[in-house]
Amino acid sequence: MERGSFASYALVGVLSGLLSGVLILGAVSYLGFGQKTIEIVKPAEISGGGVNVEEEIIISAYDKVAPSVVHIASTVLTRNFFMEVVPREGVGSGVIVSPEGYILTNNHVIGNAKFIKVVLPDGSENDATLVGADPSTDLAVIKIAPTHTLKVAALGDSDALRVGMRAIAIGNPFRLDRTITVGVISALNRTLITDKGYIIVNVIQTDASINPGNSGGPLVNSRGEVIGINTAIFSPIQGSVGIGFAIPINTAKKVVKELIEKGSVSHPWLGISGTDLTEEISKALNLPVKEGVLIVKVVSGSPADKAGLRGGSKEIVVGRMQITAGGDVITSIDGRKVKAMVDISQHLSTRSVGEVIEIGFIRNEEQKSVALTIGERPQK
What is the pLDDT of residue 378? Predict the structure, then answer.
């Protein structure tokens, strides 16, 4: 699998360079409108005229999925300057994935919420409960008690996507329910780093316009099948600039199943933290390789610890960086070359807890390998 490029997102905070503008969507209170009242005037219906084939495809896809898209309002209790408890509302989107009332959305849409309310396409409001959340994929499942038959979205196959395919985003940007925007799949196999430090691999990039409030809404193909869950945008202005990201629906399918069954998700785990090797670091440490992952720390009792891998033991300064040196350098996993931590994350995403993998590494300038049984990542 081709190693994707990095993008990092956060609710608050700025990183240097190109990564500085990637934002989680939809978790802010009223999204900068303050106390102003904005009246949205619906456009008049256009009578007469026809549509071309391209428009018919988009209309058909929208008609299939829009009845499954919901508006989510979450209330978090915070404290103000005077330490008084005050409610703060966030808004986002979700998609109905089960007739029993299960709804898929983003973890950051409902994270730490005291109350969750869902507005269905017919305008009815429903209280929702949290079934389970998975911060490492930024996905969550909530549930309502339906009073009538729900329209369930059809889920597609994100592994079959190709760059250039049509991408249709449906959601509730700026509280404008079931808004549609159209674009293409701009790239595949992107990598996002969450504000909690989790690495999300195989992310879909699209130029379909995505804005705050779209979080948790579906990214759809031409057949009206959900292919991803809109999650983040790259933007220095907190608005769409044509670079949006969605969690692949095949990732979401596994997460939804486990969250419904047990309320949590099992993720493969080695128990290491590391630094991507650079030519500068390699030269400073007199290493025989210029690419790989320098192990900084091995968690006691972890799979890596049991396999005998070693972390660093001394702090040194390389250029402007302070690194922990002396640890093993991982160079391969199951025979595949490792250039960075993302390579390890991507490979682990294809494996399961309990499986045995082979780790190639360098210790004291000598190439070695060891069999390692994958563990389950502890819940944070």
Answer: 86
Helices (H), the chain: 53-65, 107-110, 249-262, 279-285, 303-306, 341-348
Angle at 289 between CA 288 and CA 295, to 5 degrees: 105
Our answer to whether residue 138 is catalytic in this structure is yes
Residue 186 designated active-site? no
Structure tokens at 18: 């190109």
347 an active-site residue? no
**pLDDT value at 112 more than 50:** yes
Q: Read off the DSSP letter of residue 9.
A: B
Beta bridge partners of 234: 22
**pLDDT of 83 above 70:** no
pLDDT digits (tens, 9 = 90+) for 207-261: 998 887 888 999 999 999 999 999 876 555 555 566 889 999 999 999 999 999 9
Q: What is the pLDDT of residues 180-189, one digit of tens each?
A: 999 999 999 9
pTM for the full predicted model: 0.78
Catalytic residue among 209, 215, 302, 345: 215
| Biggest CA-to-CA distance, the chain | 77
The single residue of 8, 71, 138, 177 carrying the catalytic annotation is: 138
**Cα separation, 50 vs 247, whole angstroms:** 35
Domains and CATH numbers, the chain: 6-28+154-262 (2.40.10.10), 67-143 (2.40.10.10), 268-376 (2.30.42.10)
Which bin fits 355, alpha (ψ -120 to 50), beta or left (φ > 0)?
Answer: beta
Bridge partners of residue 187, in order along the sequence: 205
